[in-house]
Amino acid sequence: MKTALLLIAAQFATTVVMAQATPAQQPRSSDKVDLKKLEEKYWSVKDEDYAVIQNRTFSKSGKFFFSGTVGSLMNDPFVKSKPFGAALGYYFNEDFGVELGYIGNNSEQSDAVTGFRSAAANTSPDYNMQGNAYTLSVAYTPFYAKLAFMNMAIMYFDMGITAGLGQSEYYQITNATPGSTPTLPDLQTKQTSTHFEIGIMQQLFLSKNFAFRLDIKNSFMNQKIIPYETNIYTTNPDGESKSQNNTYIMFGLTLFTN
User: Fold this and answer.
1) pLDDT tens digits, residue range 19-39?
2) Domain count of the chain?
3) Strand ranges (E), 151-185
4) Predicted confidence band at 239 (pLDDT cuts at 50, 70, 90)?
5) Does 204 fall in a domain?
6) For residue 235, what are the CA distances in angstroms to 72, 229, 231, 232?
7) Residue 155's domain is classified under what CATH number?
8) Distance of CA 133 to CAs 12, 72, 218, Å?
9) Phi and psi dihedrals of 248, rounded to 5?
10) Can you list the alpha helix ranges (DSSP code H) found in the chain?
11) 83-138 pLDDT tens trace
12) How far apart are CA 228 and CA 179, in angstroms?
């Protein structure tokens, strides 16, 4: 028993001496992380909120722009059109801008109307043809991204929404003479209506001055539709007001000022 106690005491004393003889390991300078430098490089403080800093290769802030587009009217069963568009605007910063837009329609009756008139002589569905449209919109582009194209190039694009109010033209289609044959021309009466427009917009930058542009626009309005042929059997010769939604897909090019 006495021998065991002496061995334990000797081992304890040896451990204490070795601990005192070995200096505390100091951290290497290469292991230190300067959090202050990381914060200054990647973050900025704004009223105690943190916002990511984006290094934008192509900037829109403080620039005027002009867009030219062509496209298609997608959702009218009685009208086909290949519209062209133009927009002139200005970006206050990278997120917000304003634009004045124009869409010109070259409307004509669809194949459905042609087939209907061929099948039933001297009859036609009641419909309006879409005319030109003018819109003042606000653009909000919160999305900005980069993507790799086949490991050959880096492409830059942004995406956002547009919303605005404007004026739309439309043409009421009626038969020139009640009871006449379908060979006679239709009578078109021009009308206007206030519309609300909302759309999705994406731009793919080619350089600091040029970008491809894609828009999907939806316009909502009320239009008065009158019967194609007025006669004693018509229940509502003055027509009725209906809600109309025009959906356009437009593709083109945007030019930015320096």
Assistant:
1) 454 454 555 555 677 777 766
2) 1
3) 153-175
4) confident
5) yes
6) 35, 11, 9, 8
7) 2.40.160.20
8) 94, 14, 12
9) -120, 140
10) 2-21, 35-42, 111-119
11) 999 999 999 999 999 999 999 999 999 998 888 888 876 678 889 999 999 999 99
12) 11
Measured from the Cβ of residue 229, the count of other Cβ atoms closer than 10 Å reads 19
Taking alpha carbons only, the member of 128, 104, 124 closest to residue 114 is: 124
What's residue 232's pLDDT? Answer: 46
- DSSP letter (8 states) at residue 34: -
Residue 75's nearest CA partner among 132, 135, 138, 127 is: 127
The domain of 237 spans 63-256
Sign of the C-alpha dihedral, residues 79, 81, 86, 87?
positive
Extended beta strands in 78-209, E state: 79-80, 84-91, 96-104, 108-109, 128-149, 153-175, 186-205
Residue type present at position 25 = Q
Residue listed under structure tokens 């030219």:
68
The model's pTM: 0.72
**Residues for the chain: how many in total?**
258
**Residue 144 domain-assigned (yes or no):** yes
Whether 32 maps to a domain, the answer reads: no
In a domain, 36, yes or no: no
